[in-house]
Specification:
The chain has 140 residues and is of the alpha+beta class. It contains five helices and five strands. α2 packs across α3, α2 packs across α4 and α3 packs across α4.
């Protein structure tokens, strides 16, 4: 997202674009999938004074603005990623903790069956499948 668009979006809510907010949004975009702690580590390399509470609050704000979204990919903190990315299903290796992405079209039969049989609408952005990746001993 362009800096001016972000600034306009924040101004419309009575907020301003701060260097911290810009850095946090850029870190989420650059990291791909990141916990607040990982975002904090990345931002601290540029601005050492930003604390973890600021990271959490800013991520919540950015999510309210529709700029980032989160998924729970482990028992710990949520993992954030930019909404500019295409929607995808998260694949999480229980062994090495690697996160990869899958086209949601591959899950379409399941998504359709859940809608038809149970009236359940899947939120693709929060869908995560856990297992073992090929590198850790999954099938080829």
């Amino acid at each position: 997202m362009a800096e001016s668009s972000l600034a306009e979006m924040l101004r419309s809510r009575g907020l301003r674009l701060t260097a911290q907010r810009q850095l946090i949004l850029e870190a989420v975009h650059d990291l791909g999938h990141a916990t607040p702690e990982q975002v904090h580590n990345a931002v601290r390399e540029v601005a050492a004074g930003i604390n973890i509470t600021t990271i959490y609050r800013t991520l919540e704000l950015l999510e309210e603005l529709g700029l980032v979204t989160h998924a729970h990919l482990s028992h710990g903190s949520p993992t954030y990623h930019s909404v500019t990315d295409d929607q995808h299903v998260h694949l999480v290796c229980r062994s090495c903790k690697a996160v990869s992405e899958m086209d949601p079209a591959l899950a379409e039969p399941l998504i359709t069956a859940l809608a038809n049989e149970r009236g359940f609408r899947v939120d693709i952005g929060h869908m995560a499948l856990f297992g073992t990746c090929r590198r850790c001993g999954g099938e080829p």
